[in-house]
Amino acid sequence: MSTLGTTVRDLQRSLFERPDDLMLDIGAGGELLLARLRAAISLLLFLLPLLNWLTDGTLQETLAGLTGVILANVLAQAWLALAKHRRRYRWLPFVTSASDLGMVTLVLVLLLRIDPAGALNSMVVFAIYLLVIFVTALRNDGRVTLFAGALALLQYGGLVLWTFLSQPPDTLLFSPEYGTASVSNQAQRVVLLVATTLITAVIVYRMQRLVAMSGIDGLTGLPNRALLVHRVPQMLEDAREEGAPITLALIDLDHFKRINDELGHLAGDRALRHAVRCLREPAEPGEMMIRIGGEQFVLLLRHPMGTAWERVEALRRRLADTPFVPEAGEAHRSMTFSAGLASFPQDGADVSSLMRQADLRLRAAKRLGRNRTVARDEPA
Ligand SMILES: Nc1nc2c(ncn2[C@@H]2O[C@H](COP(=O)(O)OP(=O)(O)OP(=O)(O)O)[C@@H](O)[C@H]2O)c(=O)[nH]1
């Protein structure tokens, strides 16, 4: 029961809360993929007015179709340009979903004027509502899925209601090609919209869980090495464009083997969690800590070298002043770390050169007696 409760709470969080930056970055990749697909499909749509003209359609119909397709292409190109932009626009998935749904509703309104029963019974147009909701899963953001589902319900439900209410009483909405549009078959479609929204929301939730599981270290709850490889290069790229400073600190706990040897591996795990709590609890905005393996961590600071050194020194003193208590009543153990710093772009233009430089300085810190932060090259 508690597992079910936890799942429901997690699901709620994934649907209503803003996902973290990693999730949003993955979603921005999905948005770009979708924008490319939309642009390609919009180009293909030019075939429709052409075919209409070739198959003896009226000039008025062809021109109306052409105007619609041009509008779809202009929008698709605008969304593509925004999705490609370096700056991630957090509102973009909401606006593009609304625009896609708006286009479907526009087509439906035009069809309703010609053949109301045919418009309401057309499976092709209705299926596009379902597709638009379904592809929100690529944005990795439950709020976008709920938004698209609610908007589709509002627009489609509104059109159905308006169509039925605007008919004279006892009129049968019938189309020779599409049959009768009845209240019950329209109600089924509304249920289908709700079901698609819920299924898509669950897919988003599962995708978020998978990303979290593959990118988070189970022992400490910190992001793991995967984040260093996938996210930090983009962070450096953004810093380069903005001319913002970034300093990478490579942190290694001192004599950690002794804790394991003397107190056992489980106490060693608790000591690791204790150290991480000490280093994380006063986290500054924009600061990111990654467990890259064993008792080694990378701390990314949005500061130039001098300020970063002061910050890491403050953390070092904090850990040294907060002893680890293995079990209630047992003797306290003092813990310390050594750190090597490298700043971007002076010490390296990419993650591996920054790591190499920070590692050299970390080794120097260990050599010089541990429990210190080294920010310059020391003679070997
Ligand atoms: N309990 C526990 N121990 C770990 C974990 N990961 C790595 N270790 C231990 O961390 C210790 C690292 O030892 P060393 O690399 O020799 O370094 P150290 O003892 O910290 O010494 P210096 O780094 O030279 O100060 C090893 O005993 C590993 O078994 C973990 O997740 N849990």
From TrEMBL:
Biological process (GO), any one: negative regulation of bacterial-type flagellum-dependent cell motility
EC identifiers of the protein: 2.7.7.65
Listed PROSITE patterns: GGDEF (PS50887)
Record's keyword annotation contains Membrane: yes
Reactions catalysed according to its record: 2 GTP = 3',3'-c-di-GMP + 2 diphosphate
UniProt GO cellular component terms: plasma membrane
Name of the top EC class for this enzyme: transferase
Example of a GO MF term: diguanylate cyclase activity
CDD domains: GGDEF
A Pfam family recorded for this sequence: GGDEF
InterPro entries per the UniProt record, alphabetical: Diguanylate_Cyclase, GGDEF_dom, Nucleotide_cyclase, Rev_trsase/Diguanyl_cyclase
Keywords, comma-separated and alphabetical: Membrane, Transmembrane, Transmembrane helix
Span of domain GGDEF: 244-378
Keyword Membrane on entry: yes
Transmembrane regions listed in the UniProt entry: 33-51, 63-82, 94-114, 120-138, 145-166, 186-205
Superkingdom: Bacteria
Protein name (Swiss-Prot/TrEMBL): diguanylate cyclase
Organism: Rehaibacterium terrae
